[in-house]
Design brief:
13% helix, 1 helix, 108 residues, mainly beta, eight-stranded mixed sheet
């Protein structure tokens, strides 16, 4: 672990906080730049995940596998650019996520 805090059974992690039974899996690497995740493995740049694997830029989601750029989704596999399980075009997703983050007062 490097630059991590509040981790219980974290495995291979870098720049992560508030992890519970989360970390890396074999050759796929570990968790990086993730926050507030539980039972999540090999996910990067993600927040508020539960029981996910191999996800990138996913937020407020659970039961996901090999997804990227998803927000508020449940039970998806091999998906990109989804909000509340609705598939969007990349351009539409990027516009919507900027608005969502603005309303949630996230810093860009």
């Amino acid at each position: 672990m490097e630059y991590c805090g509040y981790v219980f059974n974290g495995g291979s992690t870098i720049h992560c906080w508030d992890l519970h039974f989360s970390g890396g899996e074999g050759k796929t690497g570990g968790m990086q730049f993730s926050y507030n995740v539980s039972y999540t493995f090999s996910s990067h740049n993600s927040t508020n995940l539960y029981n996910t694997r191999h996800c990138y830029e996913c937020h407020y989601s659970s039961y996901m596998d090999n997804c990227s750029d998803c927000f508020g989704c449940v039970g998806l596999k091999n998906k990109k650019y989804c909000i509340l399980n609705n598939q969007l075009k990349k351009e539409d997703y990027e516009k919507a996520i900027v608005q969502i983050k603005k309303e949630l007062h996230w810093k860009s």
